[in-house]
Amino acid sequence: MGRNRRNADFGSVILGSVDDSPRKQRIRIQILLTGSIVISNTIGAIMAVVLASVGIPEPSVFESKFWWVNFIALPIYVLAALVFGVIIGTTAIVRQLRWAIKDREPTRKEARRARRTPWKLTALQASFWIGALIMFTICYGVLDPALIPKIFFVVGLSGTVVCAISYLLSEFSLRPIAAQVINADVKLRRKRSALRTRALISWSVGSGIPIVGIFLVTGFSLFRSETDKVDIFTGVTVLVATALFTGLLLTILNTTHVVAPIRSVRAGMKKVSDGKTDVEVVIFDGTELGELQAGFNSMVTGLRERERLQDLFGRHVGRDVAEAALTSDPELGGTERTVAVVFVDVIGSTTLASERSPSEVVSILNRFFAVIVQEVEERSGLVNKFEGDAVLAVFGAPIDLDDCAGAALAASRAISQRLAQEVPELSAGIGVSYGPVVAGNVGAIQRFEYTVIGDAVNESARLSELAKRDPTRPLASERAVRAADAESGHWEEQESVSLRGRTAETIVFAATPPAAATDDGDIDSSTAASV
Q: Of 12, 142, 206, 381, which residue is the least packed, with the fewest Cβ within 10 Å?
């Protein structure tokens, strides 16, 4: 199935394609997970420094007595936490995803672990920031107890932001794994509350916690007489800027998670509207949006099945009959129509079957039928029945034709000429008739077929028997020739006969024989004149 590279399988070109090798996918996921850890912790560290120095300037953490914390303990812990977080986090996660690297479906236990991976990475980041919260609250608090609320708030807010960003980035990075879990059809409880969880994370970190911080800054200022209005304004400004930044970042990340599945479905619907049904979107979201993707795939599968059945139905009963059946309620009975009927019957079919193997007979008959179907359908006729080694074709039902008799006569001549050239193993008698018939559904309401019934059908069958005397010249009734327009000039009157099963005489016309070449290669003038 062709893919538009601009609409990546997993909602982003960064995540690659389902056609990527397991090794390439593993490397990409490991790089993305490492990047998510580094980016989220870098943002958290910058926030902590800004809040500690500018957002809540007093009490200050930059006094000389804190030098060993600021310049030794703090850098060592941050660097160690970042390195261990990257190594432990990505290594452990990739180890748990070995089934994806080996390109096999996950077990139920492996699938459950894969679904929990974003939370595991978030819990790992949270453990490092909780450790930092405890460690630095103690370090600064021992030297100055007044710093305990400030350190607790600054590290706690920064760590919460880190965890929120890390969770959303991890979910994004692991979409290919989520897609494999979902497509493996492992029976797991669907995460119906994940959309709500993402929204709550975005709100709490982007708005809730900064608002609480603003309240705490203003509250602390009430109990510190040395705090002036500039400090309060500066602290509130920093917290507002933090809220705007984190709120925007988390909103973008959350929106990306919501929009990506919808965008994939929209791209698929565009292809379906263009007439393509070989479309299938990758289900990479485990929430209600994943159900939307699955629903789209089910819909397209149903469309493909409907098209296949419609095509199969059309091949069995004729495309025009199938179209009429699909656009109206099926019912028994029919209407009287004036049509032209062509009946083609093989000569010596019993001998053919006795002299050749069944597979050879079928192959010859298929070439025989192919010629008839092509010539009839080119002239808007309907091949109504394959009766063993005979064919019944109708012109004028179910589609009205301006000159159904002319179309039938022209088709019979073309069939006769092509059979002699393309299927020399057999010959056939061809009869053409014209007249009123009843065209419609015949049978029972549980099982019926479209057919035509009338004297014209019987007459064409009897004419095909008569035509077996000279299979190179199809025979037609006078009514068929008289009803035709320009085509009537290619037929000449032969005789008047009483056909089997009929009391009235039938004036028979035969197709004018094709022009014959003379010995010197020129066309005989008398023959050419008759044509």
A: 142
- Can you tell me whether residue 351 is helix, strand or coil? helix
Residue count of the chain: 531
List, in sequence order, every residue forming a beta bridge with 438; answer none if it has no partner: 336, 453
Strands 390-395 and 333-346: antiparallel
Contact 338, 396 (CB under 8 A): yes
Q: Give the DSSP per-residue string, 82-136.
A: HHHHHHHHHHHHHHHTHHHHTT-PPPHHHHHHHHHHHHHHHHHHHHHHHHHHHHH
Specify the pTM: 0.57
C-alpha 491/C-alpha 409 separation (Å) is 9
Tens-digit pLDDT string for the chain (531 aa): 444 444 467 777 788 777 777 778 888 888 888 888 888 888 888 888 877 777 666 667 767 676 777 777 777 887 887 777 777 777 777 777 777 766 677 777 777 777 788 888 888 888 888 888 888 888 877 777 877 877 888 888 888 888 888 888 888 888 888 877 777 665 545 555 567 777 777 777 777 777 777 777 676 666 665 556 666 777 777 777 777 877 787 778 778 878 888 888 888 888 888 878 788 888 877 777 777 888 888 888 888 877 776 666 555 555 655 565 555 555 666 788 899 999 999 998 777 878 888 888 888 999 999 999 999 988 888 888 888 789 999 998 888 888 999 999 999 999 999 999 999 888 899 999 999 998 877 777 666 677 888 889 999 999 999 999 998 999 999 999 999 988 988 999 998 888 887 777 889 999 998 654 333 333 333 333 222
**In contact, 190 and 222? CB cutoff 8 Å:** no
- Give the C-alpha separation, 243 to 206, whole Å: 5
Q: Are 475 and 430 in contact (CB under 8 A)?
A: yes
**CA 74 centroid distance within chain:** 53
Mutual angle of helices 404-422 and 358-378, in 10-degree steps: 150
Strands 428-444 and 333-346: antiparallel
Give the whole-angstrom CA distance, residue 531 versus residue 509.
14
Q: For residues 481 and 434, what is the distance between their CA atoms, to the nearest angstrom?
A: 9
| AA identity, residue 77 | Y
Question: 315 is written with which tokens?
Answer: 């091949």
Asked whether the bond before 513 is cis by omega within 30 degrees of 0, the reply is no
